[in-house]
Design goal:
Family: Belongs to the HsdR family.
Radius of gyration: 18 Å
Catalytic activity: Endonucleolytic cleavage of DNA to give random double-stranded fragments with terminal 5'-phosphates, ATP is simultaneously hydrolyzed
Number of domains: 2
Mean pLDDT: 83
Distance between the termini: 22 Å
Order of helices and strands: HEHHHHEEEEEEEHEEEHHHE
Number of strands: 12
EC number: 3.1.21.3
CATH topology of the largest domain: tt1808, chain A
GO molecular function, one term: endonuclease activity
Organism: Floridaenema aerugineum BLCC-F46
Strand order of the largest sheet: 1-4-7-8-9-10
Shape: globular
Low-confidence stretches: 242-258
Length: 258
Amino acid sequence: MLVWFEVNGYTVLLDSDVAPGKVKSERSSYGEVILSDRLFQSLRRINPNVPSIAIKEAIRKLNSIPGDTPQTKNSNFRNFLLNGMSISYQLGKYKLYNELKLVDYSNIQKNDWLVIQNFTVFEGKVRYSPEIVIFINGLPLGIIDLIETSSNAIPLKRNCGKIKFCNYKLPTIFSYVQILVISNGNQARVGNPYLNCEQFIPWHSICREEKLINGVTELEVLIQDFFDKRSFFKSMKDFIEFTQIQVDTLPKECICRL
């Protein structure tokens, strides 16, 4: 699976290599879900005219997203992600303001693209290690969660409780995640952490059927197409409007628009 992301131009790491306490650690504790150093460097690169003091203030705000529930925080974070942030900070006796972008949508190569396998999160006594976490500029925007099943069909309803449990018990990481993929290693369904199970859908691209005929799994097709850098940003912008979506208006499939 990591090879498929490498083909798409992502950096791939194992959590065991970058976990807290390791020489190349990306965070200081298992409770942290934002990779702050990557985020700082990315924001400096994307916002070259914004001073470091403003970038540090933005990171502080991102670590404490406003909202009473994880879903509200997720919605507020998504607004920052799509529209940028307005940052105020004190410089001497002056209060200054800057507009800051979290992602460069016009030049995708300015962004930091990373996947970490088995990224482990502890919140309270709950431990969560999804198969893959996708980080853009140090922000955990996507998760691929593999489920164990002996059946050819993905038991979404059976695993819905697991998703809701994770949302409730792990509010920090799910305040940021925009894309959640559930797979049994072959079939794959894509949605958002706050959608109902019935709203998770297959990913259909223009050449999907040809790929499947040639023995490529749904999961590989999804990673190749959905997590293509251009497709992923398109998906974040258009795929899920979870504050308005209704089961009866959900499309039967999502068409990959490259």
